[in-house]
Amino acid sequence: MAALNNTQAYTYKTAKLDRDIMHKIGVNHVNLSSNAINFILFVANCIDGADGRIYVDRDKIRRELHMQKKTLIRVIQELKDKELLSEKNGFLVSHFHVTTNGETGQLRYMKNLKKFNSSEVFSMKKNAKRLLLKIAAMGTVGLPKRTSVENLYSNKLHDEQFGVFYHDSYQEFSANLFQLIEKDLIHVGIGKNTLTKDTEGYKEKFHEYCEFDAENGKVRTKSLSKHPISLKINHDLSKARKEKSFEALKNVANEEEFKFFASQYQICWELLRPETIPYFIGMKKELIARLGLLGLEIYRKSLIKYFAEHQENVLYHDLIIDEDETKAANYMKDFYILEEIKKIIVETFVSSRSNKDSLLSSEQRDELIRFFYDKGSVNHKIKLDEELTGLNSENISLYSEVLETNIKDLPGHLKPFNVLFKDIQLIYQSIPLVGESDINTHKIMVRKLAEQNLLTNKVKLQEAVNELKSKVSFISGRYPNPYNNLTQVIQTDELGYLEKLKGTRKASPLKVEIPDWILKVD
Asked: What are phi and psi of 197, to 5 degrees?
């Protein structure tokens, strides 16, 4: 489709904690309760980078953070009041994140480490958590950042621009600092020495460096000199050198979104093959990368409709394997995503005839047609042609004009249609005429064939599902490791019965792969 420029105006990005907001919380420029800080850390890896939607069940939040229902309601309202959270279409939406495509050198986000989502951190007092966020937001994990002790508690040498205001005394500050050291969350540098939880007498060494008078409980601040120190998050936390909890949390919003909608229609997503959900997520990412929020809308609408109309049959679709993809993912693409795109293309074409303003940008329109061109089968394109020319005589007239006019002479909004329409005509020409039939009769025949092929695919799949249902049932209450690679290969011939295979055998037309932990053959 050389005549269309592939603009790729969008890039799929992942949501991560906004470093600037985390810094403001850490220095108390944004004053949040301890529970609100826990909420932010807990839900951060379930934020959809496309629109900020948070995919965490509220009961799970209460359960994991040990909150009462009224406490969670209060926390949500607190974050809304601070404009860090909103609600849309029944979902909470984050405003405390940024999006990134994973490029190195980006300093806009703060890593959310697994250790930050532990009971050790959640149970800390608010000021200790604030100090942790300040340090984490100072720079890259494992790299030290310089500050002065005097900027970390209230005193006459305190720098109002860079200091924190919630530690009333050196003793309060040092107690929180030592708590972070003891939990192995941070390392502190004094001069050329680094203090860790394994440093013998680290508290005494720090007090001595800061000229803390243990007898009188005061710090000497007679001179204007300050005590510089370096602070850094323990680099082992992000490199997983000790245990798996010392890693950066992976964003799982896409997986949680799939599970959420599947659960709405009583689909046991745990029983899907390991590669199935990633296939669906791959379609979502491609749609967003090519169409932005329009792609997200198409994906969600198609996913919900597919689940609503097929429910438990999705599990049986999943057992039927294509060469490269699962039948479940392919089915949604063929009969839901492409159908939704076809409908938008028809609406866009009609609006171009009536000179109505389209809701699509020119880039979205071009990319939408390109996507349909790339992903649609011959049958999809013929059905589109039938819909476009079957609306009314005015559409037929515009269709002919677009098809017959040199693309250079067409207005920009009609050029992509010219390319698509010419491709469709080549499909008609590739199918031989039958007997003495004229062009119109030939088109009718091809259109019926396209409709029959699409319908046949649906019917064949439904027949296969019905056969599977009579021979295979999913064992309820058993949710084994979804990454179990042990499988049995089951084949069905034209009679539709299932047979366990032993050894190697030539594949029959429909191949079904069933994990051994869900197989139950009558």
From this structure: -65, -20
Cα–Cα distance measured from residue 46 to residue 252, given in angstroms and rounded to the nearest whole number: 5
Rounded to an integer, what distance in angstroms lies between the CA atom of residue 504 and that of residue 345? Answer: 47
Q: How far apart, in whole angstroms, are the C-alpha atoms of residue 489 and residue 502?
A: 9
The tens digit of pLDDT for each residue in 91-133 reads 999 999 999 986 655 678 999 999 999 999 999 999 999 999 9
Task: Give dist(CA 139, CA 233) in Å, integer.
Answer: 9
Q: Does one domain contain both 359 and 348?
A: yes
Q: Estimate the share of the chain in helix, then strand, then coil, as percent rounded to the nearest 5.
A: 50, 15, 35
Predicted confidence at residue 435, as pLDDT, reads 60
In a domain, 326, yes or no: yes
Task: Evaluate whether 91 touches 53 at the Cβ level (below 8 Å).
Answer: yes
Kindly tell me the sign of the dihedral angle through the C-alpha atoms of 199, 202, 208, 214.
negative
Q: Supply the mean pLDDT for the chain.
A: 82
Is 337 part of a structural domain of the chain? yes
CB count within 10 Å of CB 272 equals 25
Q: Judging by beta carbons within 10 Å of its beta carbon (0-12, 13-18, 19+), is residue 50 exposed, middle or buried?
A: buried
Query: Is residue 268 located within the same domain as residue 296?
Result: yes
d(CA 73, CA 39): 11
pLDDT tier for residue 2 given thresholds of 50, 70 and 90: very low
Q: Is residue 339 located within the same domain as residue 485?
A: no
Contacts of 278 by beta carbon, 8 Å cutoff, 6+ apart:
none
Q: Which domain holds residue 490?
A: 472-515
Nearest to 464 by CA among 492, 438, 506: 492
Instruction: Specify whether 42 is located in the same domain as 93.
Output: yes
Element holding 39 (H helix, E strand): helix 34-43
Residue 7: per-residue pLDDT: 42
Asked if 384 and 483 sit in the same domain, the reply is no
Reported for 53-59, long-range contacts at CB under 8 A and 24+ positions apart, including other chains, are: 53/88, 53/91, 53/92, 53/93, 53/94, 53/253, 53/257, 54/91, 54/92, 54/93, 54/94, 54/253, 55/91, 55/253, 55/256, 55/257, 55/260, 56/256, 57/260
Taking Cα atoms as reference points, which of 62, 116, 130, 128 lies closest to residue 246?
116
Alpha helices in 188-252 (DSSP H): 202-209, 236-239
**Looking at 94, 113, 132, which one is the last position of a domain?**
113
Worst-scoring range by mean pLDDT, 9-18, 92-101, 102-111, 272-281? 102-111
Taken in order 382, 383, 385, 389, the sign of the CA dihedral is: positive
